[in-house]
Specification:
Six copies of one chain form a homohexamer. By secondary structure, chain A is an alpha+beta fold. In chain A, about 40% of the residues lie in helices and about 20% in strands. In chain A, strand 3 (about 40-50) and strand 4 (about 50-60) form a beta hairpin. The termini of chain A are far apart.
């Protein structure tokens, strides 16, 4: 009998109970090939979806998946058993997904709440609109080189925008702000410089993160930890600008915006913001990060109540969601 | 012969030289009635305009002006003499101005670079547009009660917007930002609450400042120093809201926005911002203040150069004005 | 047979063992009505006394107590059973207490170590002794309005005086200090203002706390979290003073003492203390809080030893209790 | 003719005008013997009183006073001349004072506003009252050894109690407080230990200061700068206690009180206060210092006004003196 | 049959499995004599070695070891049983070790990785080489008095050099540095003073720690907590110097070096370093501590990787061990 | 008559008196060509040497020197006149120096107290000794490109090593330390990496400073202010390493050492030191800077005394120079 008969399909892992059969798409959180006392190969593994994970065994499994496949999306099926009073999966089928598999990635890993293609299109259109040809060229060159990563990666390991396309969403949100605010302070703000700074401010994160196969931040890379994303981004922007023959003054300004966007040395800025665009960039970054933390906290905070947890990035406070006006 | 013949009219004080005759409108910076050894009354005074000031004497002056008139605009005429190697005015005419005098106030005291009537109109129109009737009512009530002061006073004693109509300009600038940003974060921001918070956030300053006749901040008032403008504003907003029967939740939110708008206790906030509108209000305030500091610093910083002085409110840095792109 | 025969009466919960019968007064820590698989109503609950708590079941219980009764004192009886290797109560009787029940509240919730009536009498007598009629009137008006709460509530959620009548005990302790110190610094201290400030400094806590039925602080109220007890107290004192026609200078001083009593902005003060009474009030508050932390820590620190735990409010140190002199 | 005929006697130096003759007691602020071009000896000197000082010359002066006599009280007489548009004294008489001279020291150097003998008597009586014989013995031994210095020296170089007998006044003020507060917290405070700590807490200052002949703090001594008065005091108290055979526990407690009396390492404490008496001592010290700063600031702050200067030790605020109640 | 037949000798505790017999030298981590329900005496105890510990019972044990023997090295033998699913030792032999026992102490308690005798010899030789007879005499006197403790004790309770002979190793490492650096800055550094300061800087720790029988730091002593090792060391050095008639200037300098070696008050320094030798001593201390933290962290950090844990004393970072160059 | 007859040659400017004739080598501090009312060209200028400067005029001067020559060494002669009661030079000769002029540069600008050629030779020899070919190659390449600047420039604008060849002296001093300390901690320190880091740590200063003709730091350059010398140095080292094909790991480590050498973000570090060589580099930098501050302070601090001024970089203390041992 096919194990998928009567099986719960794509069920949330936390809803599975001993005795259930299951099949569906999951994240292969970890995988360790092993050998029984009797010398037979098997797998220790963990499957995960957005809200939970379960340990499992695949007996008599001899490949092709190995420890290197951890972090991939898989199709799996089998049965729910019990081990030490807790549910454990016994698998009879396990393979990596490919393009022909149609499933909702957002069910197994966190994904931005907006459409990635649209956001990417918006970012590109906005960069095309920069009136300064030098700043425009640097941005488009960096986008060209980094497009895939830039569109896919999270904005952070934790704190805010820690989901697929998060960096893209953060960048798009900041560009929208920058466009609106540049209009309000035309005496002091050069729109092209500000928007270029917004686009470039976190590109160093693409080198700072070491990501899993699916694009999630596994950890910081060596470069990320030893050099920091401000330095990495400024070095990359500088090299792109020099390759395009951008004047030294403008290259320096782009690098200044990147190096100062954390606002103060104690928050990680390499230098204080010293031009109006750098100052505004740092504020815009703060606003978009914090509004996103509120959006995320609202997910489990009903109107008229405080969040159950303190939010680290919001001064470590429990935040309040105002009651809805009737 | 009339002393005003051949007199320089409304001349900048720093351009006057011994021997000149002068007449025009000035600020009466200080005035002390005195008596000569021979028992005759005279005045020691100082006249000022935007860029300088000069000491003066008015011999045989018996009134009506007294020490209480310091800080007023006056019409004055006389001659420039020399005392201890420095110029000193000898007056033959001095009177307070009234409505019939037509002169440019901005020549003798610092004034906002935008039209006060237009800004006030914009603020009022924007408050009329609040969809929440309660928040709208509180704002309009406070505006009604404080209109004159609100339209006239500076935004601060020093630091930023320290000129006539400065508070109005600061409020208008923040409302424009708030209107733009509320659109960008509709999931977390209630536009009515945010804009009401912006309008009310500094009303406590109207009680915090003790102003000169012409509206400039002479010093902080007793209440300002002992209670602070955050408390004063929140108490005033609360009493206005209660008088209008606004629900307690909304009154509390308005007060929270006012009390938290300095962002952190170490910057003077009574509480941390704990709702999204409070957080955004604090950021908007920061942006408008700092963009104004850049605007002001640009006045004597040529493109491609650093400011000559450190700017206290901008991390005490010398700020850079980017070279103009050609 | 009556279950209370042979039952241990008012036994400490931690002394109960499986097989014991029990009856007595306890705190109903939590209560959740539920239904068995067979459709019968029962209660999941937890009883508590000063030193421990136990889970329990009341089978076939259909009311009248509901989840809303958590936090009340109850009379309960039943038997001690075992569930998952731990004791669990099986109840056969459960009711709220009323005035006719005579029992020692201090056995089930923490209570101040001094007599509440005597302390309240002392506070009231002391307020009557203020020579300044305005300050006296404000204090007595606030006391009148808040008497019951003021006499019952703890002084804090944790840290110090976190027991019934704690605020009263803290206030009385501070008044005693204030009375003694006002005598020592007559050149700079107005006794009436100082003592009024002492009495009023924490009245905002009455609105800041949201308390359980028995008067213990469950959590901070919305107002407490969004406005803070300094603001709430100063607003309340101001409104009481204005209702009594107290001169503005005195109202302002009372508000200043309340708003500054945490000493520094980074400790939560709205403004720095700027008059001698405000300074002294902040010090007196510190002394009484810290002496109480020592008193509490001594409960399980023998002479000649250090406390077993670090005391957060005493610089997070393990504190030393000197050996007794013989 | 005797120069003292018609001379203004003990006149304030700032009241002297060219042409006046003067005689009286003054502070010899500085004195440098010199020689004229013609080879004749003379003195350059400065005389001072509480509110001013004047330069002077004593022509043809061959001794006995030398540069080593700076900082002494002198009797001087002579004439007021003019040098470079400013008054300069020409002396005809100058000698050190001795016991037979009767004059008000407080007119030429700052002196505590209370009677030193009475304060010293109070301190000694209070030490005699300590019930613990060990603590009493240590205090009396240190007092015996240091009596003269202790009674004479200021409490600080600046900040507070910076006048003759200042340390005595500060100690007496703190003992009065300690006596009152020990009564209020008998559960945690050992009166003998607390009062002994109060008496000893600043004895290290006697070695920390290097004082002028008249007892004023000229500067910190080498030991004061390199070891600090907390260490110096604790070492001295420890050696006194060991000489008296005081038990180690008590010696250690006395040293702990001295070493911790600044409250926190960042304020100069060697260790945090870790027993109740140490904690209370630190608070009492703070109160007495700050009340004295208020007392001093009131000298030129009228009721209902703010001090003209910021007071460094009071959070660098301008402090407010409440209006007198009528 | 002798229980030691077939027994695993000196086996690592974590390698023992139920059913094994064992014998060998271990640390007696804890020991509580008890009595069975039947009235028979037995021991509850825990044996430990460097990497693990196990609970055990010794039935029918009536002495001579008691609770006071915790922290000693013992010879033990017995069997490994199981209790509540975990291994538990059943002992049949247990005695304290004495000089005749030959075993590797480093297998059961952490020991410095260098030979203690050689290090002690180096320290003593170096002190003999001080050209200043006074500084040399003070050091040798202190070494004489404290030799055993100084050679045995750890350098700290945690953080760095927290193993037997740790203080000796730290001192030797610092002396080597000091000797090298004194050569490089001969204009400002007095080698004798610097090296004496190095030797004396932590002698206060010998009184600050309360150590176990084997020399490990159990906890801080009362004096350590209430007075701190900087004070204790400076007082001890001062008394040694005075006993030897060392000039006051030199005594003061030695005390200054000890009191300032933590660099800043917020790191525990009593005073800031104010002479070049004090400054250099503080830096040398920092370097030796931190290099040791790296050495210790390398133990489980392979080349080319980050440490698994954050290292508190290294700015709480995960530290990187560079890849080996090939 | 030739003006140089009887002229004081190379006299210190502060020793010149009205009426003197002078000739010699000086620093041309400033120079402004001007025109008299009568239309004749002349120069306003200032000459300076190490201890002073004087204003001067050169009448009827038509070139060739212009405002662009400020900051150069010149030969000048003329007469000392008086203008407004102060000395003013009247020049009759003024020309730039060239190689043929032999004079002591150290008399007119501050110069390191050691021989620059010897120090440069030492640095180069040491770099040649690096066993790691990659690190050696990067250092030598950077030295080659920057040799002249590196040998000439000061180490800072103020604070320490603020004289010609200061950076070279600082680098040589640190290399000597590094060489000694690498030997002492061979388990954790790679000598090649450490010494390469020392050499490269401040190369960013060569771009950070904008220097005068003679090599003194006039001000920070735009890049210096907007990007900082840590970023500039790391970018330069990275580009040199990549040009040489150095492995990425080593390039990253060199950049890490440069970016972290200020120790903490609040002191300007881009990242915390996270490898042992980075940690040690930061300490070595601190030591060499501070020992130099002591050396400099000793210049006007006699033995047994405190410095007259507080030294900003030494915790803003007045530092003590120990009395000489006899």
């Amino acid at each position: 009998m096919d194990s998928r008969n009567n099986a719960k399909k794509n069920a949330e892992l936390r809803s599975l109970a001993p005795g259930d059969r299951f099949c569906g798409y999951y994240l292969l959180k970890s995988i360790q090939p092993a050998t029984t006392a009797a010398g037979k190969p098997y797998l220790n593994l963990r499957l995960a979806d957005l809200d939970g994970e379960l340990p499992g065994k695949f007996w008599d499994y001899a490949g092709p998946l190995t420890a290197a496949d951890a972090g991939q999306a898989v199709w799996a099926s089998g049965r729910v058993d019990t081990f030490q009073n807790a549910p454990q999966l016994t698998l009879d089928n396990l393979r990596l997904t490919d393009e022909k598999d149609e499933f909702d990635l957002g069910r197994i890993v966190p994904v931005a709440p907006y459409d990635a293609q649209e956001m990417l299109h918006y970012v590109e259109q906005t960069l095309q609109s920069l009136s300064d040809a030098d700043y425009r060229a640097v941005c488009l060159a960096v986008l060209e080189r980094r497009r895939e990563q830039f569109a896919l990666l999270p904005g952070a390991k934790a704190m805010h925008h820690a989901f697929l396309h998060g960096l893209l969403m953060h960048t798009a949100g900041m560009l929208r702000q920058a466009d609106a605010l540049a209009l309000l302070y035309p005496d002091v703000i050069d729109r092209s410089l500000l928007l270029a700074g917004v686009f470039l401010h976190d590109v160093g994160k693409l080198a700072e993160f070491s990501t899993t196969e699916l694009g999630l931040v596994g950890d910081y890379s060596k470069e990320g930890q030893l050099l920091g994303h401000l330095f990495l981004g400024a070095e990359e922007a500088g090299s792109a600008a020099r390759a395009l023959g951008v004047p030294a003054e403008k290259t320096m300004l782009l690098q200044h915006l990147i190096l100062s966007h954390h606002g103060k040395p104690e928050f990680g800025a390499v230098v204080y913001p010293k031009c109006a665009e750098a100052e505004l960039l740092a504020e815009i970054d703060m606003i978009d990060s914090r509004m996103e933390m509120y959006r995320a906290a609202f997910a489990d905070t009903p109107p008229g109540q405080f969040s159950r947890q303190r939010v680290y990035g919001l001064n470590n406070c429990m935040i309040y969601r105002p009651a809805q006006e009737e």
